[in-house]
């Protein structure tokens, strides 16, 4: 561990400088030689580093979700080229390149903060051995060696012997108890963070080897923390416990407000969003509009929870729009009126289709129409037709009465003689 820490000695001076600056502030409140002043300085260092790593955390979330989306395609490639590992790797790399994903992006926050972790370990190891390091001079070194957290010195380890602990003016029992409790809390927080990710924020409709790997890491990481934790100084345990708690809280916030589609967290979020929208009648926050906009854009590709959300809004009289807003159903169905206040043609009532008549009803109607001979409209000279001479009226053809009957499909009149068949 000392060899690894020495590789990151280039960042030791900045880390020690940040700790000293925070110590100057907390020392005025709690006293310069107290464990509160030095412990809170380490906690503040963690918070500062994690705030700077928020963009990487956002990139990690996007990469993880992209990998979850690609799991079905990756599984097809594995099954297709299960006997050709080289071709399988080539197809995997091609898939990553086409989709713009990187499997290592999910490890970016851990890789980015590892230099700070080892630099802090290097600083605390120097305090334990009584060596000045970075900007920590002799007075600060003496103050740090006096600082105790619940009776355990900052530089003490679980594996330290009684003689070394006595040099730090502490008892072996206090050091073992404090370090053991912190190791358990560190491992438990890591386990809960990973379990929260697997049980709430994973698409349950996709069963892939990636999920099995995540489940395995859920148990492997806490064991690793427990094994390595016994060799960490108390100050490093404070650092790692703080960063685990930060990760857990940050992940809880993301799962609650931006869950993975198809997960249990999304079902809970859409249920809360449904109650909020039906109560206020609109989407008020930008994040809510973004979620609704994404659901509307999916169309028929919505999952079970998204369809339930859209159907629930429809039953409550609301319609989700393409821009992420939600309006009343009546407002969506109504059409904008003209400037004079008259509704447009689109707002007219729907035309009802006439009932279908039977064949006998159609025949009787046609006969009734043919029997009515007296028109009711007036001519251009506004004189009734009865006043005109009878000669002007066309004579009614003798076959007019049978014309309506001909419409029934029966042929009337003289029949054409059939031509004799040719022998």
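Sequence proposed for the structure above (423 residues):
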């Amino acid at each position: 561990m000392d060899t690894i820490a020495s590789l990151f000695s280039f960042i030791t001076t900045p880390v020690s400088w940040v700790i000293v600056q925070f110590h100057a502030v907390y020392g005025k409140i709690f006293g310069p030689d107290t464990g509160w002043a030095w412990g809170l300085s380490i906690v503040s260092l963690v918070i500062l580093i994690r705030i700077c790593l928020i963009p990487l955390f956002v990139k990690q979330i996007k990469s993880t979700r992209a990998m979850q989306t690609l799991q079905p395609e990756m599984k097809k490639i594995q099954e297709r080229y299960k006997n050709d590992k080289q071709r399988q790797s080539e197809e995997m790399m091609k898939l990553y390149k086409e989709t713009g994903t990187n499997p290592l992006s999910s490890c970016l926050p851990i890789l980015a903060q590892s230099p700070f972790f080892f630099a802090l370990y290097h600083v605390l190891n120097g305090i334990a051995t009584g060596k000045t390091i970075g900007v920590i001079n002799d007075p600060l070194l003496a103050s740090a060696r006096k600082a105790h957290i619940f009776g355990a010195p900052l530089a003490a380890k679980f594996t330290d012997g009684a003689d070394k602990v006595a040099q730090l003016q502490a008892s072996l029992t206090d050091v073992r108890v404090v370090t053991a409790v912190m190791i358990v809390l560190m491992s438990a927080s890591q386990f809960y963070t990973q379990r929260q990710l697997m049980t709430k924020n994973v698409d349950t409709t996709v069963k892939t080897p990636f999920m099995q790997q995540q489940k395995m890491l859920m148990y492997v990481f806490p064991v690793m923390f427990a094994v390595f934790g016994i060799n960490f100084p108390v100050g490093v345990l404070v650092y790692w416990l703080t960063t685990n708690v930060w990760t857990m809280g940050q992940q809880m916030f993301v799962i609650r407000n931006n869950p993975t589609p198809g997960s249990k967290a999304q079902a809970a979020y859409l249920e809360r969003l449904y109650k909020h929208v039906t109560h206020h009648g609109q989407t008020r926050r930008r994040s809510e509009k973004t979620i609704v906009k994404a659901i509307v854009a999916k169309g028929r590709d919505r999952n079970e929870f998204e369809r339930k959300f859209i159907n629930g809004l429809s039953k409550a009289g609301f319609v989700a729009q393409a821009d992420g807003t939600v309006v009343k159903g009546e407002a969506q169905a109504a059409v904008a009126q003209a400037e004079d206040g008259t509704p447009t043609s689109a707002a007219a009532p729907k035309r009802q289709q006439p009932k279908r008549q039977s064949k006998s009803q159609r025949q009787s109607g046609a006969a009734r129409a043919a029997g009515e001979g007296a028109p009711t409209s007036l001519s251009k000279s506004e004189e009734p037709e009865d006043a005109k001479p009878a000669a002007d009226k066309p004579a009614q053809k003798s076959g007019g009465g049978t014309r309506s009957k001909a419409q029934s499909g029966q042929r009337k009149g003289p029949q054409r003689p059939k031509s004799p068949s040719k022998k």
